Automatic annotation (TrEMBL):
It comes from Aliiroseovarius sediminilitoris. Belongs to the cation transport ATPase (P-type) (TC 3.A.3) family. Type IB subfamily. It is found in: Cell membrane. This is P-type Cu(+) transporter. Signal peptide: none annotated. It comes from the Bacteria.
Length: 290
């Protein structure tokens, strides 16, 4: 790479809010075979809100919401913030002994009873029988909702369905990447059903779901072991190791500092379509050098 072409390329990128942190990334971006997008906060807005409450038999929707909000007051997870917000105006009880359960949810005690808030994996691990709520949870996942389960003293209280809208340009970004011969994948800690539904809406068929935070980088490694050059796009603390592992890591500008520090390219406008821009810019820059 001639230093001049690289300077012009990175300068042009910067003008468009695409910050290449090193010259190597500009070259590597021309070679990417697959782009892996984190779901929450990257393909979606990362502004989840509660859209539906389902009570277990003999319980009320408010019982479930109050218990979940009590526990999730202790968490800064985006889903927790959505739950606490929805419970505004309700009499949310005090909790003690909050514990974050990475990739699964959280637990605490209310009036001496253990309360669990989280995904299906957490309920299965704790042997909570969901009964008739199993089918309702599946229906919600099929609609693309993230489902948070609430249990107290070993019994399910209800479900909280949460929606997070796709970023407006996500679908077009996927289509353009595929047109350019780049494969696209979705990587998420969320469940398979929800992930597949949202991926389908965006035109993505490679879905890596139910991935624990510590395993995201391994998924990138597995793709690299298939001989692929991998670009990873993410926003969260969770995504940082995967961004580092990828051949080119792209961070969403509205994301966390850790993600931005770990990435090779920062997308200042938080626009997934700028991944296309970054690749086109790198290809144009390299063409000028030959
Ligand atoms: P992601 O944010 O990419 O979906 P996480 O690994 O942070 O992945 O979480 C995985 C899943 O665990 C979430 O989709 C949710 O179902 C559940 N979860 C995690 N933390 C919480 C929490 N504080 N409250 C409720 N559910 C949670
Ligand atoms: Mg995210």
């Amino acid at each position: 790479a001639t230093p001049m072409a690289v300077m012009v390329g990175t300068g042009l990128g910067a003008q468009h809010g695409i910050l290449f942190k090193n010259a190597g990334a500009l070259e590597d971006a021309t070679k990417l075979d697959v782009i892996v997008f984190d779901k929450t906060g990257t393909l979606t807005m990362g502004e989840p809100r509660v859209v539906e409450l389902v009570a277990a038999e003999g319980r009320s929707e408010d019982d479930a919401l109050r218990a979940a909000a009590a526990v999730d007051r202790g968490s800064d997870h985006p889903l927790a913030l959505a739950i606490v917000k929805r419970a505004e105006g309700l009499d949310v009880p005090q909790m003690t002994g909050f514990e974050n359960l990475e990739g699964r949810g959280a637990r605490a005690e209310i009036a001496g009873e253990p309360v669990l808030v989280g995904n299906r994996r957490l309920m299965d691990e704790e042997r909570i029988d969901l009964g008739a709520l199993t089918a309702k949870a599946e229906r919600l996942k099929g609609e693309g909702r993230t489902v948070v389960h609430v249990a107290q003293a070993g019994r399910v209280l209800g479900l909280i369905a949460i929606a997070d809208a796709p970023r407006p340009s996500a679908k077009a970004a996927v289509a353009k990447l595929r047109e350019r011969g780049v494969e696209v994948a979705m990587l998420t800690g969320d469940n398979e059903g929800t992930a597949r539904r949202i991926a389908g809406e965006l035109g993505i068929d490679m879905v890596l779901a139910d991935v624990l935070p510590g395993q995201k980088a391994d998924k990138v490694k597995e793709l690299q072991a298939q001989g692929k050059k991998v670009g990873m796009v993410g926003d969260g603390v969770n995504d940082a190791p995967a961004l580092t592992q990828a051949d080119v890591g792209f961070a969403i500008g509205a994301g966390t500092d850790v993600a931005m520090e770990s990435a090779d390219v920062v997308l200042m406008k938080s626009d997934p379509y700028d991944v296309v821009g970054a690749i086109e810019l790198s290809r144009a820059t390299l063409r000028k050098m030959h």
